[in-house]
Amino acid sequence: MAEDYNKQKVYLTDISREPNAGGRKQARIELRALKDAYALKIETDMMPKEENTVPDTKLFRVTAYCTADGYDLKNLYKYLKSNSLCNKVSMYFGECLYTLMNFKGSGERHDCFFYEYGVVVCWGMSEMQESMIVKLVEKYEENGHEPSEVEIESFKYGITDNPFIINDVIYLNSENHFTKMVISIAIAKSVKLDYFENLVDNTIDAVKEFPEEVEREGKVSKSKKEILKMIGKLHRLRFNLNLGSNILDEPEFVWDYPAFSSLYETCKRYLDIKPRADLLNRRCDVINGILEILNENTNRSSIEKFEVVLIIIILSNVVLIISQMIEMYIRLLNKS
């Protein structure tokens, strides 16, 4: 068992945090630190109205990794069912795969949630154990991301009587895995949005010089093919955000178990899921507007070039006809 465990290790130092650890994410984390405590209504429990104070309790890691566009949950489920490290494996509505991990020599609880849109959320694991999970899921990834593109969000959690969340620390009143799953859905959507936000940032970097170039030169240096490729990438991003994944939809689990609705909405509000998604769509609209104008400009340039070529061809034919007529006239004169 120890030998298998060592084979599956992948150290998280191999996953570069630098390219994605920009000011945007850091600023959002700092803003969350300024928020008041959010009371978590877990199932049907009524929360106390008094102000929450930070309890003195042991804290454990909660880490989310966005490693791919999606996971093949069906085959991953089969693999985990046959893996001796997994004490329990359950699939929920085809969108979330849960497993309770059993790491040798560890007396702590280790919950792991895999989501169909390429995110895994680990509860109560060490960094080395998390690295094993990231390595394990690699063969079930759909369009896996490069290590430098992997997005990571980190939290802490502990157990206390009055559940709430503050400063990226989640206080629960039990180790109930359904509660963790609902919170994990919000965290998974947040880290997936991190990935989309990074793609939009890269697109903005690619197009931000275009308006100045048009103003200065009256045209852009990019070809029509390059512009169409950028438009295609942008539409693919918007499709994945709004239609290709269920990031903006209410989870099936919450639909079927409305007692968890308040908990999910609280976590979604704490992580600013909706305003971030709305902002992302607005930024995509602006980029799309710029690219469409450039595409029209290249179309116009192509039409103008075609018109010039057509005029040259017509003029060439006219000159040819006139020269032939002159030649015929000269022949007639010579005969007479």
UniProtKB/TrEMBL annotation:
The keyword Transmembrane helix applies. It comes from the Eukaryota. Residues 112-281 form the DUF155 domain. GO terms for cellular component: mitochondrion. The chain crosses the membrane at residues 308-330. The keyword Transmembrane applies. Pfam families: DUF155. Keywords: Membrane, Transmembrane, Transmembrane helix. Belongs to the RMD1/sif2 family. This is Transmembrane protein. It comes from Encephalitozoon intestinalis (strain ATCC 50506).
